[in-house]
Amino acid sequence: MNSSFPPAPILIFDIETVPDIPLIAKVYGHEAKDWTDLGIITKIQETHNITFFPSLYHHVVSIGALFIDPQNYTIYDGFKKSLKPQDTYEQSLLEEKELISQFWNFSLKYQDYNKVWYDKNAVSGGYQRRPNYPTPVTFCGYNIHQFDLPVLEHRSIKHKIPCPIEAYVKDTGYQSYRSPFAIDKTFDLFKYLCPSNKISLNAWAKAIGLSGKMEGMNGAEVQTEFFQEKNIQKIEDYCAVDVLITYGLFLNLQYFRGYIDEILYQECLKDFREFLLHEHRPKAYSELYENSTTYFKGV
């Protein structure tokens, strides 16, 4: 991160998706019985030798996020919304459009976090003489460069949703939001930790003492829970737990990088524990704490 300027608010997020069955069937020249016909997806994958569909074909059904204070790395706000089960494809698309729009707008909630500093101290910089503006948000997650952000971008384009973050869509180059190297804009933990091999978020969680992903659920089962069981709460809890274990991994990484010392790390763990055990949190939060005694040892 650029040490010359104060860091932006950090938004750790994750999305859950299901196949956009009518769109996939249309593009690949097949006919779906209805918009929940998972059988046609299997047929298309087998016929065209597809293991994973590109980002455009992923219908967003749940988004979870935590705003992290860039000074003390504690949680200070959150976002958790999911689609309501709908009877028709058209209704579900409208719900998706609203969900993505709300998330983009939420990502700018603390864009003025460093406004006073920039108003007093920032001057034109660089040989291009472009003024230095505060970075409104740092997106953070696990594999967000390859999946989460492209899905949000492509589905936004499909739904004609304008991105409210001007720098995100208009700036290009090495230090833009689209650059995997500008970690003050988008900090992908997968890209940072696994440059030459693939390690799952679940594996990292278990390695650092967290319980891992929610039991009885995985990404492949989201489509079944959505289309057949219509259990959106289970999907939302699964998404939220992924965000929480990503935050736990983020804390350990920042400790390794020297951004968090031992005292601050212990304070973050205490705050994390209190967040998980708050009386209004879903049961999945307290279960994450109870099954992560190694991670919270001594707190």
Total count of domains: 1
Low-confidence runs of at least 5 consecutive residues: none
CATH topology: Nucleotidyltransferase, domain 5
CA radius of gyration is 20 Å
CATH superfamily: Ribonuclease H-like superfamily/Ribonuclease H
Compute the average pLDDT: 92
| CATH-defined architecture | 2-Layer Sandwich
Helical stretch tally: 12
Number of strands: 7
Series of secondary-structure elements, N-terminal to C-terminal: EHHEEHHEEEHHEHHHHHH
| SSE-based structural type | alpha/beta
Spatial gap, N to C terminus: 29 Å
Helix percent reads 40-55%
Strand residue content: 5-15%
CATH C-level: Alpha Beta
Which overall shape is indicated by the principal axes computed on the Cα atoms? globular
- Biggest sheet, strands in spatial order? 3-2-1-6-7
Query: How would you characterize the largest beta sheet?
Result: 5 strands, mixed
Structure characterization notes:
The protein has 299 residues and is α/β, with parallel strands linked by helices. The protein has helices spanning 21-27, 38-48, 89-106, 115-121, 144-159, 166-170, 189-193, 201-207, 222-227, 232-257, 262-276, 283-290; strands at 10-19, 58-68, 75-82, 124-125, 130-131, 138-141, 186-188. The chain has a single domain (10-290), classed as Ribonuclease H-like superfamily/Ribonuclease H (Nucleotidyltransferase, domain 5), CATH 3.30.420.10. Strands 3-2-1-6-7 form a five-stranded mixed beta sheet, with helices on both faces. The model has no long low-confidence stretch (mean pLDDT 92).
